[in-house]
Amino acid sequence: MSFRILIVLMGLCLMGNAPAAPLDVVATSPSLGALVRAVAGERLEPTILAGPERDLHQLQAKPSMMRALRDADLVVAIGAELEVGWLPAAIAGAANPAIQPGRDGYFEAAAQVELLDVGGPADRALGDVHPVGNPHVDLDPVRMARIAAALAERLARLDPAGAETYRDGAAVFAQAVEQRVADWRARLAGAPGVLLYHRDAIYLLNRFGVPLLGTIESTPGVPPSGQDLLDLTAKLKGRAGVVIQTPYQSPQAPAKLARDLGWRLERLPLAPPLEADGTGYLEHIERWVEAIAAARP
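Request: output the structure for the sequence above.
Response:
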């Protein structure tokens, strides 16, 4: 046997003994990227399509998204039509059959848990509505723990060699959530309530029994009118609360309402930093809890 053939055979043997390549996972948001890291640990690193400063309702499909999705083994989306304006087009442009809806390579977080606001009107003329349910499940840490367990099973199906890693990661994340929830609930007991720009934080408010005092936009996705602001001020004058807006929402109306009501104005992202893991996600929820708890008179 020649020396060259021996080298080739040795190389093939080494390839056969090498560990399987990690999955190529794409998440649509930093919250889901954090969840992937919480479940998978160092076994894989997700690509994230949008940063925490972006409104997932308003994105457009871009060539960079299609490139990221082209070789993906799994796309992890919020679902419930949150990304309906751009993700289907990006997946179609990627021409990757593995991540089509209905395949193992397509995972929707919202499909794993019970949704709020189900059964609303389906007419888009009424604004940015989601008749299948409110999609912003990622601000509820308890639902996210359940989603993590489902994600671990999907990853285990695609990568059986990592099944133990994924299931252990989901269990550790769920335990961390459980340890924090009691403290958060105690700190938010009796909180006077929150005025949101959009119904994007109702899962967190619902989880901890915090009143939603109203939304600045009377029609979802449509900027408020002057009359809308006058009506809200008249309704809430003399009460305690906090106004919370996201970085991508126009600051003028929230600032005016906070000033007229004498309330704190908090500017908080809906998602954690781009590089966040499970711990970073919990720190993100902590920021929301602190802001709401501080609204007590």
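The chain is about 45% helix and 10% strand.
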